[in-house]
Design a protein that fits this description.
It comes from Olivibacter ginsenosidimutans. This is Phage holin family protein. By secondary structure, this protein is an all-alpha fold. The chain is built from four helices and no strands.
């Protein structure tokens, strides 16, 4: 009984090693949990953007052919459609700061929500 109550430096070192291992395992599992929430969302966003690109591409082709038929010049139809996209690019360049701010705010909200969800799990 006396042996169990004695202070043992080996025991403390062993417990410290177990604590460090458990702490690193916990940190790794928290990291994996966070990544497992972020990566699927990013994958869905990338796939959605890819599909949106094709939708915009085919709709712009249809618009160019429609305008071309209407004006009896396919070249003019494609030129006007291209001019529309140049106008969109100029608008994005003009409103770059508000767009960046909006995207930053959305990202912060998403990450804070993920962080709060992690705190609720614990």
């Amino acid at each position: 009984m006396e042996d169990q109550n004695k202070f043992s430096l080996k025991g403390v070192i062993q417990k410290l090693k177990e604590y460090v291992k458990n702490y690193t395992d916990l940190a790794y599992l928290k990291f994996v949990r966070s990544i497992s929430k972020i990566v699927p969302g990013m994958a869905v966003a990338i796939i959605s953007l890819l599909f949106a690109f094709f939708v915009v591409f085919y709709l712009s082709m249809a618009l160019a052919f429609f305008i071309g038929e209407w004006l009896h010049s396919y070249a003019l139809g494609f030129a006007l459609t291209g001019a529309f996209f140049i106008l969109l690019i100029l608008l994005v360049a003009l409103f770059k700061k508000p767009i960046k701010k909006l995207i930053t705010n959305v990202c912060v909200r998403v990450f804070v929500r993920l962080h709060n969800d992690d705190d609720d799990d614990e």
